[in-house]
Amino acid sequence: MSTAVLTDSTACLPPELAEEAGVALIPLHVQVGRRSLAEGVDISTAEVVDLLRAGKEKVGTSRPAPGEFVERFREVAHATGADSIVAVLISSAISGTVEAAQLAAQAVRSEVAVEVVDSQILGMGMGYAAAAAADAAYAGGSPEQVASVARARCGATSTYFYVDTLEHLRRGGRVGTAQAILGSALAIKPLLMLSDGEVQLAERVRTRAKALARLEEKCLEAIAAASEDVVVDVAVHHLGWLEQAEAMRDRLRETVPQAGRLDLVELGAVAGVHTGPGTLAVTVAPRA
């Protein structure tokens, strides 16, 4: 294989799916006090949930340093024998990960060619895109073709999510302060989405029950909007809300039996820092 595919840990790719697809991973970091912990290596999602619920330590996140990308690019090239790498990474509007990867790509350009794809999303939408890109690479696609597959899949993906509180997003600067205060003051339960690479308000809903119902409806609308001959993969994400996620997955399985993959995936530690416990999200990813 001349082209390898790498994504970051915010893709939330289950290890077995990453291995099956042949996608390499690089972790982002959770900052706990003065400690920097690699997501999925030094700290788990469950540990982040406990930290956030306890509220005793300052918890934040950070991108991989360019040097970490340099090391990982070299490792992937050596392990796979690839002479090029397509890196499908978290939206540049949310994280500086793309910038770090681009700096690293310049540093290793004499050893391996790296094409950096700004996914404009995160979560399993990015994971599905990375897996599709890996399939294209195994089929002999050029780096440009592999990157194009990833961009097309990301661009066709819809992601909606509900959070019990906007406070974590506000603290991390991932949603406007005024908007967060407005939602809190009026006891509104916001339904959010990823659009143009950023977290944006999709709808204001009065109660949690109505917000969750609208979340499911948004998922069904996104599936219905896909062409009839296109297979659609769906992921239900959660953070500290397994029962609610399982219930939604089961209802979707009955409602859209024609869907491709239907995955139940715990939200990663890094994304979880910014959304907080009580998060439910749906990703709809047509295989266009």
From TrEMBL:
InterPro entries: DegV, DegV_C, DegV_domain_contain. Keywords: Lipid-binding. Transmembrane segments: none annotated. Pfam families: DegV (PF02645). PANTHER family: DEGV DOMAIN-CONTAINING PROTEIN DR_1986-RELATED (PTHR33434), FATTY ACID-BINDING PROTEIN TM_1468 (PTHR33434:SF2). This is DegV family protein.
